[in-house]
């Protein structure tokens, strides 16, 4: 690695991506792991080492609120397979894709398994080498709708109703680091559960549900902030009028997260979501799984499901005739939403970084702005494809390509 987080350095000749403008031929000065100056043109700082961006882009590191696993490491499944070294390995592989902050996501499982994995994840958070890339965790389930389709790939034997004492046990096992929970608001006891989580500062997401409009509205009234991967986690056959999509799109208070990997949503769906919610209310997420970076083929999960990773990158769950999360990193969502909506690169990165930081209360990152953590990515864009050349976390180069 080229530098430590205590060095002073400047990145010159960069195209700096900010939410408001693209600063061409810009300079970013980093000192003690923080961004100190962002300016157009050259900055004379004799003591600062120089990194020449050579006209490439500098943007905030990507923030992914839904990472089920990566590079063969699952945060949800077990059998003793989740280890601190596995978590570190997954983090290093995510850095290569430009993700500098992420929420390990635990999907529906037994209480014993979830407690065990949360304790391991919480211990791994203290690893200084990860530099705070894991600020907390996302529970997607187990308090979801058990119906086929709405349940998705979540194992039905572990789906259950919201139970506050049980959740507090999970919360304590996480070191009180559960930042987000996805649940179905129509389940018995869910609305009171939402109110309690909101009081604790946990971000409530609505997902894998079939709630009518009045329940969705009540959930938002009680503090629900976002719809998890809107357009997915629903049955293949739904009522054209009475379904969980319209109410979530119609309420301006609710953010939505969407998976733009070219498989989860049609281009026209993405365009409609973008027109209705706008840049400020959309979060790009990957829903990426442990199958990311693996070779195409048929795989068996630890809970017995057969999963197919196709040549084109689609991850298929044949038993439910649905997707099994994603195998595509967050950069794919940035590329695809620009392609299908014609939004700007800056807007796409806002949806993949700044918006997520704001939702999760991570006020120290998510923008190329003085005073914030120097979580940065240096990348090129060729034929609409993003290539990450350097990833910085707290001012330290944690990944560097051999370009």
Structural write-up:
It is a single chain. By secondary structure, the chain is of the alpha/beta class. The protein folds into 2 domains: 85 residues, Urease, subunit C, domain 1 (Roll); 299 residues, TIM Barrel (Alpha-Beta Barrel). Helices cover 26% and strands 27% of the residues. Strand 21 and strand 22 form a beta hairpin. Helix 1 packs across helix 2, helix 2 packs parallel to helix 3 and helix 8 crosses helix 9. The longest helix has 16 residues. It starts with 8 loop residues before the first strand and ends with a strand.
What is the count of helical runs?
Answer: 9
Task: Give the N-terminus to C-terminus distance in angstroms.
Answer: 15 Å
Number of domains: 2
Strand content: 25-35%
As a whole number of angstroms, the C-alpha radius of gyration is 21 Å
In CATH terms, what is the architecture of the largest domain?
Answer: Alpha-Beta Barrel
Largest sheet: 8 strands, mixed
Number of strands: 22
Helix content: 25-40%
């Amino acid at each position: 690695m080229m530098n430590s987080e205590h060095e002073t350095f400047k990145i010159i000749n960069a195209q700096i991506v900010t939410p408001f403008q693209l600063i061409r031929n810009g300079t970013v000065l980093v000192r003690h792991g923080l961004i100190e100056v962002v300016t157009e043109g050259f900055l004379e700082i004799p003591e600062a080492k120089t990194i020449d961006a050579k006209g490439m882009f500098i943007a905030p590191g990507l923030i992914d609120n839904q990472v089920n696993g990566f590079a063969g490491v699952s945060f949800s499944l077990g059998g003793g397979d989740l280890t601190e070294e596995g978590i570190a390995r997954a983090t290093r592989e995510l850095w290569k894709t430009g993700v500098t902050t992420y929420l390990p996501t635990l999907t529906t499982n037994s209480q014993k398994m979830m407690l065990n994995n949360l304790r391991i994840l919480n211990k791994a958070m203290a690893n200084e080498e990860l530099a705070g890339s894991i600020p907390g965790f996302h529970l997607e389930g187990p308090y979801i709708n058990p119906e086929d389709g709405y349940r998705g790939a979540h194992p039905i034997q572990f789906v259950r109703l919201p139970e506050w004492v049980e959740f507090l046990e999970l919360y304590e096992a996480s070191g009180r680091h559960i930042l987000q929970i996805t649940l179905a608001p129509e389940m018995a006891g869910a609305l009171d559960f939402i109110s309690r989580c909101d009081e604790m500062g946990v971000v409530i997401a609505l997902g894998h549900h079939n709630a009518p409009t009045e329940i969705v509205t009540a959930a938002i009234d009680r503090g629900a902030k976002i719809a998890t991967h809107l357009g997915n986690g629903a049955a293949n056959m739904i009522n054209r009028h009475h379904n969980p999509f319209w109410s979530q799109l119609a309420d301006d208070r609710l953010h939505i997260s969407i998976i733009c990997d070219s498989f989860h949503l049609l281009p026209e769906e993405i365009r409609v979501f973008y027109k209705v919610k706008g840049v400020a209310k959309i979060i790009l997420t990957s829903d990426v799984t442990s199958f990311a970076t693996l070779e195409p083929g048929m795989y068996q999960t630890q809970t017995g499901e057969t999963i197919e990773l196709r040549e084109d990158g689609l991850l298929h769950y044949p038993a439910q005739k649905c997707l099994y999360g994603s195998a595509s990193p967050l950069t794919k969502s940035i590329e695809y939403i620009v392609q299908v909506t014609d939004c700007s690169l800056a807007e796409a990165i806002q949806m993949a970084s700044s918006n997520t930081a704001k939702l999760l209360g991570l006020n120290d990152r998510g923008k190329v702005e003085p005073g914030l953590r120097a979580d940065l990515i240096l990348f090129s864009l060729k034929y609409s494809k993003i290539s990450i050349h350097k990833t910085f976390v707290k001012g330290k180069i944690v990944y560097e390509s051999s370009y």
